[in-house]
Specification:
It is built from twelve helices and eleven strands. By secondary structure, it is α/β, with parallel strands linked by helices. The chain has a seven-stranded mixed sheet. The protein has a two-stranded antiparallel sheet with strand order 7-8. The relative contact order is 0.11. Bound molecules: nicotinamide-adenine-dinucleotide. Nicotinamide-adenine-dinucleotide binds next to helix 1, helix 3, helix 4, strand 8 and helix 5.
Amino acid sequence: MHELSLNIDEHVTSILIGRDLFRKLEKISDRKLVLLVDENVYKLHEPKFAGLNCLTVPSGEQQKKLAFVEHVMRQMINMEADRTAFLVGVGGGLVTDLTGFVASIFMRGIRFGFISTTLLGQVDASIGGKNGVNLDGYKNMVGVFRQPEFVWCDLDLLGSLDQRELASGFSEVIKYGAIRDRSLFDYLEGHHEAILARNPEALEKIVSASAAIKVEIVESDVTEQADRKLLNFGHTLGHAIEKLTGMVHGEAIAIGMVMAARLSYNMGFLDAAEAFRLEQMIATVGLPVKTDLSHDDLYETLLKDKKRSGDFIHFILLQSIGEAFVHKMDLHSLRTAIHDLY
Ligand SMILES: NC(=O)c1ccc[n+]([C@@H]2O[C@H](COP(=O)([O-])OP(=O)(O)OC[C@H]3O[C@@H](n4cnc5c(N)ncnc54)[C@H](O)[C@@H]3O)[C@@H](O)[C@H]2O)c1
């Protein structure tokens, strides 16, 4: 088992990465424990939930909305949950984003923690305190920053994850290697088969290394004024691709990373060999590397990105594998750059 902690102001989040972490729930028995559980996780692992107060969340991003938050809170009132209740989200990023938001506003805030069940959740969504829901097609438009008390990344639960979802999480792991950790990137090149076969040691290694990077970056910049922007590598174009195609998050990010690396090369920051290495890594794990979307559709969608600031966008580029930086680009240059990408 691997242990990390995220320290922000006076708050400490304990992050555990290992196997059979579910039994640790017994330790919260002094409070009214309510579990918000991904419906698929509930069905696939039902015996683990015996005797616990569970509310299930149907799968799908369309649940991530204010109406569903109200629905959950009504059910919590029916369960007689009060301000001493402890809410635990069990699922991927969808459930943990919802859980953190509900726990932050129910009775002006109750205690909460996460059992993260997807690779993407374990390496990314569950860490960092961003919680919220979508509004009118705008992703994560309504939400709060609030840190959970714990994040347990149960590697056994990854066993039931669909291969496409596993690859989606893998995309974020590649991102960490690309922006911050060349040795992690080397490891991924050498062990991608073991990871895709869900070898527990390989999973523990990549989840721990990725979570450690996320912790380090979030601690240095909680509200995304500086370094935390680096985590958006591949995401500016990736989010636009995700929105236009409905692709799984990590797949769209994979294409976004290939494009960002190509852009880094076109602008003279990155060697061709390094850009090619990233593209190869992404293709090797079966993630897509290109899109047939029109340049104009991509650009127009990108303009609606909530990270845009006026006529500029903070684009994350690579200097080498393991080293990223923020590049402020005006929208006109970005439009031209997109046309030169593919
Ligand atoms: N808060 C953040 O910092 C942050 C960062 C990245 C992404 N997110 C959010 O995370 C969400 C995406 O998260 P995700 O990729 O984990 O997707 P998800 O939570 O929607 O889960 C993906 C699918 O896997 C299923 N599933 C989950 N765990 C399973 C398991 N152990 N076995 C079998 N099936 C399982 C779910 O039912 C679902 O069908 C998006 O809403 C995104 O906005 C948040």
